[in-house]
Predict the structure of Putative permease.
Amino acid sequence: MAAMRTRLSLTLSLYFARNFLLQFAGVFLSILLVVLIGDTVELLRRSASHEDVGLQTVLAMALLKQPNMAQIILPFAMLFAALLSFTRLTRTQELVVTRAAGISVWQFLFPALMCALLIGGFRVTLFNPFASILTARYEFLERTHLDWSSNLLAVSDTGLWLRQSTPDGSSILHAQGVDQTSQEFQGIIVFLYNKEERFTGRIDAMRGRLVPGAWEFSDVSIRDEGQQARLLESYRLPTDLTLENLQESFAAPETMSFWELPRFIEILEHAGFSAQKHRLYLHSLLASPFLLCAMVLVAATFSLRLTRHGGTLAIASGGLLVGFILYFFSDLIYALGLSGRIPVTLSAWTPATVSLLFGVSMLFHLEDG
């Protein structure tokens, strides 16, 4: 008899899981298709003034952008899929029969929660690295064809490397690090090039800082090509950079793999820069499987009440509204984390934790099994 119950439980679990996954696949692909069409139209609009950007390039860019968009819409798809799945099972009385057989709400929610957890784990460990590569390629094409920028920035173990345009050509700047307190760059070397990209000289400076319209160096040695070095107390090199857009020029966290983020954060902080954005993104990735589980619980809170209270459209709409509020509430929390008003870890984990607590508490309140 015990073996029969185990067999029945496994059969029901597989049935509920299959139903949920089919709903999720349909909803997820439908939303992604709508997003793809919208992104394609927007890229066509942006490329209208660039005669060298053809339709093939626009379509390639739109497709490259979709893996990152898929990660963004994933909680919405999970919420919609759970609502549709549970609503269907409730309206067909399948859940009523299941409850009559002695199966509790937590037992028939378990397959959907496990699916959400596995999808979230797959997203973080396998899909995110794949999406980061394509997102980096998309941003390169966007910068090349639609939003050309002359400043290229990179951070490595050796410090900061920056390429920028100057009135006389271009320059490559290397700094060993940045003092966060004084916002001074230390151990600076600048390689100068003319408009034909031919090397013309080098600047060495003990310290430097960004002031409006220029780099201001102290304790400077300037060596023009074929000439003796000149020692100066200070020197100004024109630039259109500011500390704000310099910080924004670092590789976006979306272009970095989950496995690469901890190392990049370490390098960024060692160089003296803030890694708040990247640390927040890393913790939000870790919290995302639990956010997906929370979306399932929120959907269950509303859709499982249909047979008791009626008003299918009103209750389902309430579920969608609460889900959107919980999800978009995370934007406010993330903004507080980025501004340093609350710890980054707390900011990243709060939306998933609050959503989980809401779903669990509502189910305990509404269900007796």
About this structure: The longest strand covers residues 199-211. Residues 1-8 have pLDDT under 50 and may be disordered. Strands lie at 152-156, 159-166, 169-179, 184-194, 199-211, 214-224, 230-238. Residues 2-47 form the longest helix (46 residues).
